[in-house]
Amino acid sequence: MVSLLTVAGIVVAVFVGFNIGGSSTGVAFGPAVGSRLVRKATAGALFVGFGFLGAWTVGRNVIATMSSSIVPAAQFTPIASVAVLFFTGASLLISNLYGVPASTSMTAVGAIVGLGLASDTLNQALMFVIVSAWIVAPLVCFTIGFVVGRYVYPYLDRYVAFTTFDLHFVQLDRSGAIPRPYLNPNASPQDIVGSLSVVAIACYMAFSAGASNAANAVAPLVGEGGALTVDQGVLLAVGAFALGSFTIARRTLETVGDDITELPILASLIVSIVGGTVITILSYLGIPASLAVSTTSTIIGLGWGRASRAATLAELATPTPERPEFDVATGALVTSRVEEAPASPTIGDIARHEEPADEPEEIPDVPDIGAEGPADLDERSLFDPKAAKRIVTMWVVTPSLAVAASYPVFAVLL
């Protein structure tokens, strides 16, 4: 009976990892795929490689927390382990069907919390720390994004621009017996440096995703008397990530590359660096946290920061007919002035095969804060409030479903 449950646990763990791979690949490589720097298959391969590196190193700390600290390791009986993984995977599947990068860590912890509440073994002090991190991390990401968008971004944007590639960045010459790769002939040296930066940051995001998400797939199976060792758990998790990365990730890649990330490519670099760094730090501390939450919080903060440059902080707080008004609901400026398009194409432009605005012959000066008509701002390049609302809603729904569904089951089983 135990061996059958162990096999069932491994199967469900693969199911969870499959959904994690589908969700996290979109978060990490959506910008790179949307801007035609890498193909979807290449994105999947890179995600698996760097996700393994993150899981094998930093991810061990998160596995330790989720396998024995939130509830005692003894509570993860074969039946309980299968149930936790099942509720985690079912909640994630709902998010993936909606094409939304799910809050994987919140969902997995939610299922474990249901077990802890039913068995009266929940480590409430640790859960207070974890939930506090879930609140603080998005606020930190939002604040950093706002500060960068308001005070730093326009100066970076003067010197960073990308070409819209009609073909992928790396091409294959198949005229010979062995295909030979070569760079897109339309790429300038600046494009090459910028494009490599986008891919490098995507790989860093994959490292962060592996560090934070491996535990979500296998933690219940690892620990005292568990079915797997930590090393075996990491290998199983990454193998399951690969299945999702090469299959259902196509939908989340399209969502992140078009619906969510209506950002210039420079902005996507900033978002990836901030979100990935916050999650890597939390994973090193053994705190399960969501990469999707951190990156989208940075997107919103960056968009609001850029929009707010048209007025001083005092003016934003007290708008008048002579001053531009900042619409908090949409992250846009209420102004009759026609804004100019951003200097570099947005990822959404590239995904929809739209032509970017012509670059000016001379780089304009960055307007001072409070000056009307910021030259680097386009309302489309902030964020899509409808997409943001859909994502935040699923962040709340998926862990809530995991807790609500797992608690009554464990109350009966235990």
UniProtKB/TrEMBL annotation:
<keyword id="KW-1133">Transmembrane helix</keyword>
<protein>
    <recommendedName>
        <fullName>Phosphate transporter</fullName>
    </recommendedName>
</protein>
<feature type="transmembrane region" description="Helical">
    <location>
        <begin position="391"/>
        <end position="413"/>
    </location>
</feature>
<feature type="transmembrane region" description="Helical">
    <location>
        <begin position="38"/>
        <end position="58"/>
    </location>
</feature>
<feature type="region of interest" description="Disordered">
    <location>
        <begin position="352"/>
        <end position="376"/>
    </location>
</feature>
<feature type="transmembrane region" description="Helical">
    <location>
        <begin position="192"/>
        <end position="212"/>
    </location>
</feature>
<feature type="transmembrane region" description="Helical">
    <location>
        <begin position="265"/>
        <end position="287"/>
    </location>
</feature>
<dbReference type="GO" id="GO:0005315">
    <property type="term" value="F:phosphate transmembrane transporter activity"/>
</dbReference>
<dbReference type="InterPro" id="IPR001204">
    <property type="entry name" value="Phos_transporter"/>
</dbReference>
<keyword id="KW-0812">Transmembrane</keyword>
<comment type="similarity">
    <text>Belongs to the inorganic phosphate transporter (PiT) (TC 2.A.20) family.</text>
</comment>
<keyword id="KW-0813">Transport</keyword>
<comment type="function">
    <text>Potential transporter for phosphate.</text>
</comment>
<dbReference type="GO" id="GO:0035435">
    <property type="term" value="P:phosphate ion transmembrane transport"/>
</dbReference>
<keyword id="KW-0592">Phosphate transport</keyword>
<dbReference type="GO" id="GO:0016020">
    <property type="term" value="C:membrane"/>
</dbReference>
<keyword id="KW-0472">Membrane</keyword>
<feature type="transmembrane region" description="Helical">
    <location>
        <begin position="70"/>
        <end position="94"/>
    </location>
</feature>
<feature type="compositionally biased region" description="Acidic residues">
    <location>
        <begin position="356"/>
        <end position="365"/>
    </location>
</feature>
<feature type="transmembrane region" description="Helical">
    <location>
        <begin position="233"/>
        <end position="253"/>
    </location>
</feature>
<feature type="transmembrane region" description="Helical">
    <location>
        <begin position="125"/>
        <end position="148"/>
    </location>
</feature>
<feature type="transmembrane region" description="Helical">
    <location>
        <begin position="100"/>
        <end position="118"/>
    </location>
</feature>
<dbReference type="Pfam" id="PF01384">
    <property type="entry name" value="PHO4"/>
</dbReference>
